[in-house]
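Why do we care about 3D structure at all? Because function follows from shape, and shape follows, mostly, from sequence. That is the central idea of this module. The next example makes it concrete: a single protein chain, its amino acid sequence, and then its structure expressed as tokens.
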Amino acid sequence: MHSTEAPAPPDATRDWDRPAPYDFVETTRMLRTGARDPTVRRLDDGLWRTAHTTDGPCAVRITVGERIRAAAWGPGAAAALDDVPRWIGLHEPPWTLPPHPVTDRLLRAHPGVRGTDTRDVFEALTWAILQQKVLWEEAVMMWRRLCETYGAPAPGPEALRLSPTRKDIFRAGVPRLQALGIGFAQARTLVALARVAPSLQAAADRPTAEAITMMQSVRGIGPWTAAFCLGMRFGRPDPLPVGDYHIPNMVAWALAGEPRADDARMAALLAPFEGHAFRVVRLLFAARIQAPRRGPRRGWSHGRGRRRR
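And the structure:
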């Protein structure tokens, strides 16, 4: 028999003005790791997202209309609502970049893109570590299995899961993480991260260079992981994601019409955008720009085959 009980009301709600221009769908696109991400569910008018806060876990329903409304369930409901504006890019104004014909055109085409700041260093680094030297489809699978196996059910009316806590990862250990299809090096890095995670949370509010140094103090976390994590999950405009297999080609193709590039060439092309390197990369992602492929088409892979850690 189906329950006839009404869903429990939210533990906290809040509303915000909707800025203009503002593209909710593209801004929050990277918050979901694949269509079956058990921690994020996309809706026609918003999304669900689960999170850990200093007050405990929660699930948040964000609805986008003339105004933006968030309803949250769980012990961390009120704390999460303090962070929602950063999750969905309401904390920053429209982007401006140094003049360039390509980025000028892309800013006109995508004026509402913002950076997202999830505020949780352990979760963000876990997400990035799973993408080290693998295809996107493999990272999606590993993230889903990790959350379904070691993440707890989320509070609230939706059948969502929380991402694993550092204690969950540490107790699992390397062999059990490998059993989920996670590579040995990634599993070892996750356990090392879990061991020191509380001391890294301060990186969320440190300058980018200092945050990168803090993150790289964990064995197995290198320049790519730190920069990509800060750019994608903390909305930092300035990290340069060196060591990626595709991004230098994407940047060179978009800005110079060159189908192939290395990190040095990417850095040279992004030099005029000092302080905004990752913002340019994120704008290229929004425009779905890819360099021409050589050979058979393959799934997206970050940093496959060279110093991506």
